[in-house]
Design brief:
It is a single chain. The chain is built from 20 helices and no strands. The protein is mainly α and about 550 residues long. The protein has two domains: about 325 residues, no CATH class; about 90 residues, Arc Repressor Mutant, subunit A. Helix 2 packs parallel to helix 6, helix 5 crosses helix 10 and helix 9 packs across helix 10. The protein is rod-shaped, with a radius of gyration of 45 Å.
Length: about 550
Amino acid sequence: MTFRILFLSFVTFLAVWPIIRSELPAVIGPVWASGAGERWSVKILLPLLFLGALVCAAWGIPAESGLLPESSSDLPSLFVIVLSTWVAVSVASLISPSTAVPFAFLGSVAGFRLVTEGSLDWTLVARTAASWLAAPLLCSLLAAGIVALTVRRPGRTPVHLVISDHRLLLGCTLAAFLLAGAAAWNLGSIVAFFPVAAFGAGPVAAAVAAVPALLLFLLARPEFSAKTWHVADQDLDFTSGPVFAILAAMGLTYLVFSLPVLARIGLTATPLPAPVLLLAALVGVSLARRKALVEGEKVLKSLLSAVVCPILGLLVCYSLSMILNVSADEAGRTGWNARITPTLVVLGIIVIAAVLSLYFRVQRRRDLQKEFFLSRERQIYNAQKTLSALEVKAEMNERDLLNKLEIKRKELVDFAVGVSEQKEYMESVYERLSRVRGLTDPAEKDAATDELLSSLRERMYFSREMNDFYAQSEILHKDFNMRLKEAFPNLTESERKLAILLRQGFSSKYIATLMNITPKSAEISRYRLRIKLGLKRSDNLVQFIKSI
């Protein structure tokens, strides 16, 4: 008896693991995204409602799918079915993380019945497959319809934002209770297949089924929480209105496909996968809002995974059942002790396969860690390279600033020297004028006056100052001079000086004064410069020079 309980616990582990990893996050994720999960009443009542609906379903209150036989005490057969489900879900998860655990379980049951009974009720199979197609379609249409009904229309009376949010949160809370209860009720038909009644009634049977599941949930809680937050933060990262539509649509779909009245329209009550319904509801909301909330590739992969799950479960369970030689007659003749040996052989093979799978997972994780570290090293290298480039640029800017400061310092020194020289010159002119004034001979006075006027005229040319001005301009516009010489090597020195003055914004009047020519000559020089630069009549000379 003890060994059977331990074996049932192990089988429960295998069965509950994919449900916790795949089904529950898709049910709880929308509740967290809506904000209803923050209420303490929801935190307390929602698990109780889910557990209560699951217990009721385990005792056969909802109608079971026709593919599911009565609860069996044949543990080896149950082990084959659960193991086939686990294999099918594991393989399908390589296609998409949104796997269809109930589809894989029903496919495994169909494979087992094909071996034990020799055939299947293909009419029932077709009705079940039609139900699998109709459920996502109904969920999508419900989500789109709820969104269309809740959208505010221009003719409606405006409602205060606080009141609107309160109503929406209340609606999400009610929809969360509906979803939790209906999902547990719908998935409970799978729990009813486990032979807990063979170990006694009441608390004993419940403990045999619940304790392993509870322990596994505690072990898988970090991964469950991570997946649930991923659904809430990534897949449902939008306002609460569409989330309410998703909660209500999923809850109503679960409820409808748990009722026996579906047989009247050619369908059947069947367990449904929460990830598939979640994606279907997202597609419906996307159609209603005319905005893609889910990637098309993700939907296609999820559909492919949902198709693969039952087919692969059927094939694996059929193959394992044939290996164990499980037939209907033999099941009645052979006892537990005679059948445990081949079961343990298969279990050993599965353990070896699980170890190999774990090894490859660990190896893959190490490879991912290496890729991550290499990526971080490349990022650090690029950051260091960028930092070095910034340091070089900063050093060049610093040198350029120092050069400009040196130029300004020289300008101040030259200005001070110029002021001193001008003062000395003006003092010499004053002394010479004083001497001319003291002359009495007219001829001598005229000669001294002419000499003074010649000196003043020579001084008016500012030849030294202009040379210094052009020298400073060439330093400040060094790059411009280099580009000008490379682009137009036929320019004369006078034309390059004119280009520098034009680049600095001097008008023709000031250019004539600085170059000691007449304004007319300055205009002629500008015209000749335009010709050498190859400009048209409509081109602006100054803008062209500044663009060089």
